[in-house]
Design brief:
Order of helices and strands: EHEEHHHEEHEEEHEEHH
Oligomer: single chain
Largest sheet: 5 strands, antiparallel
Number of strands: 10
Strand order of the largest sheet: 2-3-1-4-5
Strand content: 25-35%
Shape: globular
Number of helices: 8
Helix content: 25-40%
Amino acid sequence: MAQIKFRVELNKGKRGIPLSKLASFSNGFQSFLSSLAGDVSLDTDPDKWVASNFKDGCVAYDIQYDDEVSDEKGGECESKIKIVVSGNSNAIQNSGLKPETIQKFAGVVAPTQPGEVVRIGVYGKNRKRKKWFEVTKEKVKNIPTFPVDAEVIEYYGGVQGEIVSWFLKPSRPSEKPWFWLRDSSADTTIKCLYPPDLHLQVSKLTETYDGIIHVYGQIMASVDEDKIEQIEVDKLEKAETFSNEDFEKFFGCAPNLTKGLTAAEYVRGLRGNGKQIET
């Protein structure tokens, strides 16, 4: 019997990761792996895939199928994972994977920035050595068999921004109410549709003209334009404000960082208009 298992590394060289981004990665992997399981005749229950063996520093953990499978089935599944993450177009075309499975893998890297690397290590038979693959948005786009080549990919995730306009009554009764959200990170506007049971919550969030909120749900993004087009909202909440008092708490937390300079002198040095800072 065999176990299907591979390792994921996110934000290598950095510490931690925004929770909304981690949630997007998790949902992307879950959706892809459930679809992959169906392609190899395994149980498609998303809860069959579990994360374990977490490592501090960069975000690193194992993902494995929570049941033992036959050696043949385990080998088939791991082989298909290797093919997809390798980005080899010819191998993907002949892999037997459904187009929607490949599309869902493209959703895994949707939360990344251009050039950002997701490392995926597939364990060998001895479970000690891993063969590592590096996956980026650019690599995914260059594979012609990915349906993302054209228009839109879908994944679960979150966006931070502010409501700039709100449409209370849709033009057709079958449509959901919606609002425009200005994305804080990209300075673009996103159409956010929400179910009627969130109406009162949306109303409260519009009471202040400059309120920043977090919006979560199924995201539709344009690959060609590298832009989020729409979110099917299932959760939203007000962002916590960052006061001057909160900011002041940072001073003095790392006394050796400025190497004897005041905070103002250190910042001017970093900007190139003060004392030169040795790194």
